[in-house]
Amino acid sequence: MFSLSWRGYGLAGILLPVACLALVVMLLGDIDHPAGAKLFWGLMLASSPLLWWLGKRLNGEAEPGEEPHRFMGLSLQKVPLIYLGLFGLYLLGKAMQ
Fold first, then answer.
1. How far is C-alpha 59 from the geometric centre of its chain's CA atoms?
2. Largest separation between any pair of C-alpha atoms in the chain
3. Can you spell out the DSSP letters for 67-85?
4. How far apart are CA 64 and CA 43, in angstroms?
5. What is the mean pLDDT of the chain?
6. What pLDDT sits at residue 1?
7. DSSP code of 18?
8. Buried (b) or exposed (e) across 38-58, using 16+ Cβ within 10 A?
9. What's the pLDDT tens digit per position in 30-72?
10. Which of 43, 70, 82, 86 has the most other CB atoms within 10 Å of its CB?
11. Residue 2 scores a pLDDT above 80
12. Which residue, among 67, 47, 71, 50, has the nearest Cα to 58 in the 3D structure?
């Protein structure tokens, strides 16, 4: 079952979107700014390789399935795939408008 849990530095998996959202608010001054979603997804896509690199570095020597740094049951280096999937859903939603 789905649970919002983490182990080790897996907390970085949830802190990445929170940090991107905070940057959007600081830069634009308002979360409802017309460019807010574009800036948020730009920051998310730009910082996802950093999260992948961090996960590969931290879990590099661990056995598959036994990674000490996990987020929602996934190893930390696989978390950017969730964000890429959410970006795809965002684009699909924009295309259907």
1. 17
2. 45
3. -SSEETTEEGGGHHHHHHH
4. 29
5. 88
6. 47
7. H
8. ebbbebbeebbeebbebbeeb
9. 888 889 999 999 999 999 999 999 999 988 888 777 778 888 8
10. 70
11. no
12. 67
Three-class SS state of 4: coil
DSSP 19-78: HHHHHHHHHHS-TT-TTHHHHHHHHHHHHHHHHHHHHHHHSTTSPTT--SSEETTEEGGG
* pTM across the whole model: 0.82
Encoded tokens for 62: 């661990």
- Residue 11 gets which letter from DSSP? G
Structure tokens at 47: 């910082």
Q: pLDDT tens-digit profile of 13-36?
A: 889 999 999 999 999 988 888 899
Torsion on CA atoms 2, 89, 7, 68, rounded to nearest 10: 110
